[in-house]
């Protein structure tokens, strides 16, 4: 298996050759007028190259065309192969993301077929995604590099494999980043979702879909703990609004086309191989580097709290949802009967305040944090979250077992090892 360095710096840079012959040029530059015309031509060529390049740069965040071909199809087919009786074949979107990589590995471990899809966008350090991809590849999971909005790619994937399930985890995550880049939420969480649903609806047979909604849909809801039947019409961030829109959109596809759909409201998921933009991760980085951390506080200096949920518990919830998803009834875009439409909270059911989270990190890191308390800015945050998980428990026996203390210990152990704190030379973060 190639190492992560090999993937980043391929040994064969390509087939581009520089033509050093100047005989042709000598003839062209024979007269001044020809030189002038030639100069104009070069300027036009450069201008069109630059505009093409900027088109490529702006598009490359999302779209790549590095798929297709006999070898590629063979890799997809092999990766989708099921190795247990009664197993399923799953297309996992966002497979090199935090939750996606863990779910892919768990499915593969129990013998299910898994094909990943990921666009490796640069919302956070793509090298972490490449490292996760390397791990997946070592377990025989092929990750297709491409974007949800690439309809041809999605339809090709379903031509090659009759996926029984789609685990849709690709998304623009993060509550506060929506202030900076609102369009990326629309691109991934709305347009990308619809594109995927269009493909699933048209597939024959149709897969069942399980996808990641968010605890943030509860928004300004004050009734605790949050139950699936509580109101979700007061989102506090654009992120939350796009996830809520996703719930409505998936309902439509269930209603019209008979797609079996399960939405999972994840509550602040954390753990090894996590997302660097999240508080527990960036706090750890700053604490180790001796930099201050900013802790938001609510009105009247009330601490914010989250129902932090350990990744292994989320993975159990995802697999339980896939196994109990029921079947889609339609085919080729035609509904043949009603199909299940479900929404579940996946949380830990025991909220912890942010300062206590920092206490636990300090204990595991054996370093004191430099705490800087500020009033919660109007950035989309909500004061607290708390999941009622009785529906998921009833439906597929969901039962979280990892408390924050234990989960953060596992995260810190991974973090120190991944970033080289256990060796003499610290790696650059
Ligand atoms: O459950 C979800 O659906 C979401 O969970 C996560 O959002 P959040 O619960 O906001 O997690 P996270 O950023 O770790 O902040 C945690 C706490 O630290 C506070 N916080 C944060 C940053 C900071 O600098 N200081 C601070 O006090 C902050 O105010 C908050 O109280 C996912 O990112 C999101 O993609 C989505 O999945």
Give an account of the 3D structure.
This protein has 429 residues and is an alpha/beta fold. The protein has a domain at 70-269 and 310-348 and 385-401: Rossmann fold (3-Layer(aba) Sandwich). It has helices at residues 4-8, 23-28, 32-60, 70-80, 98-109, 126-138, 151-160, 182-202, 238-257, 279-288, 311-323, 354-365, 390-396, 404-418; strands at 89-93, 113-118, 142-145, 165-168, 208-214, 261-266, 269-270, 292-297, 305-306, 309-310, 341-346, 352-353, 370-375. The strands form 4 sheets. A 7-stranded parallel β-sheet has the order 3-2-1-4-5-6-11, sandwiched between helices. The model is unreliable at 1-32, 46-61 and 424-429 (pLDDT under 50).
Question: What key attributes describe this structure?
Answer:
Rossmann fold, seven-stranded parallel beta sheet, 14 helices, 13 strands, globular, disordered N terminus, disordered C terminus, binds the ligand O=C(O)[C@H]1O[C@H](OP(=O)(O)OP(=O)(O)OC[C@H]2O[C@@H](n3ccc(=O)[nH]c3=O)[C@H](O)[C@@H]2O)[C@H](O)[C@@H](O)[C@H]1O, Epimerase_deHydtase, UDP-glucuronate 4-epimerase, EC 5.1.3.6, NAD
Short summary:
With 429 residues, this protein is an alpha/beta fold. Helix content is 43%, strand content 14%.
Write the layout of secondary structure elements.
Elements: H1 4-8, H2 23-28, H3 32-60, H4 70-80, E1 89-93, H5 98-109, E2 113-118, H6 126-138, E3 142-145, H7 151-160, E4 165-168, H8 182-202, E5 208-214, H9 238-257, E6 261-266, E7 269-270, H10 279-288, E8 292-297, E9 305-306, E10 309-310, H11 311-323, E11 341-346, E12 352-353, H12 354-365, E13 370-375, H13 390-396, H14 404-418
Parallel strand pairs: 1-2, 1-4, 2-3, 4-5, 5-6, 6-11, 7-10, 8-13
Antiparallel strand pairs: 9-12
Helix pairs in contact: 5-6, 5-11, 7-8, 8-9, 10-12, 12-14
């Amino acid at each position: 298996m190639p190492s992560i360095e090999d993937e980043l710096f391929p040994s064969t840079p390509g087939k581009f050759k520089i033509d050093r012959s100047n005989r042709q040029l000598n003839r062209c530059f024979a007269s001044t007028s020809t030189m002038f015309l030639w100069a104009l031509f070069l300027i036009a060529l450069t201008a069109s190259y630059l505009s093409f390049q900027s088109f490529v740069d702006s598009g490359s965040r999302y779209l790549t065309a590095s798929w297709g071909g006999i070898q590629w199809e063979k890799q997809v087919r092999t990766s989708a192969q099921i190795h247990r009786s009664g197993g399923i074949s799953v297309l996992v979107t966002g497979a090199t993301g935090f939750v996606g990589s863990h779910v892919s590995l768990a499915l593969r471990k129990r013998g299910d077929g898994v094909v990943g899809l990921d666009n490796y966008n640069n919302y956070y350090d793509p090298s972490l995604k490449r490292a996760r991809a390397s791990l997946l590849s070592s377990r025989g999971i092929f990750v297709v590099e491409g974007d949800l909005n690439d309809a041809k790619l999605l339809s090709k994937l379903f031509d090659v494999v009759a996926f029984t399930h789609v685990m849709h985890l690709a998304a623009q995550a993060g509550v506060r980043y929506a202030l900076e880049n609102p369009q990326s939420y629309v691109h991934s969480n709305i347009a990308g979702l619809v594109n995927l649903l269009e493909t699933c609806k048209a597939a024959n047979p149709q897969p069942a879909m399980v996808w990641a909604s968010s605890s943030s849909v509860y928004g300004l809801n004050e009734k605790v703990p949050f139950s699936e039947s509580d109101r979700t019409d007061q989102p506090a961030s654009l992120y939350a609004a796009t996830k809520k829109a996703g719930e409505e959109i998936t309902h439509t596809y269930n209603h019209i086309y008979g797609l079996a759909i399960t939405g999972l409201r994840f509550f602040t998921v954390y753990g090894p191989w996590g997302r660097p933009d999240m508080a527990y991760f960036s706090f750890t980085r700053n604490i180790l580097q001796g930099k201050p951390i900013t802790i938001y506080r609510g009105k009247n200096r009330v601490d914010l709290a989250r129902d932090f949920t350990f990744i292994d518990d989320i993975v159990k919830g995802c697999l339980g949802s896939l196994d109990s998803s029921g079947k889609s009834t339609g085919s080729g875009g035609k509904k043949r009967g009603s199909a299940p439409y479900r929404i579940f909270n996946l949380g830990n059911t025991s909220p912890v305040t942010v300062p206590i989270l920092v206490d636990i990190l300090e204990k595991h890191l054996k370093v004191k944090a430099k705490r800087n308390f500020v009033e919660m800015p109007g950035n989309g945050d909500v004061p607290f979250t708390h999941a009622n998980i009785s529906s998921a428990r009833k439906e597929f026996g969901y039962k979280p077992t990892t408390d924050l203390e234990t989960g953060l210990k596992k995260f810190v152990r991974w973090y120190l090892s991944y970033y080289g704190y256990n060796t003499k030379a610290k790696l650059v973060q």
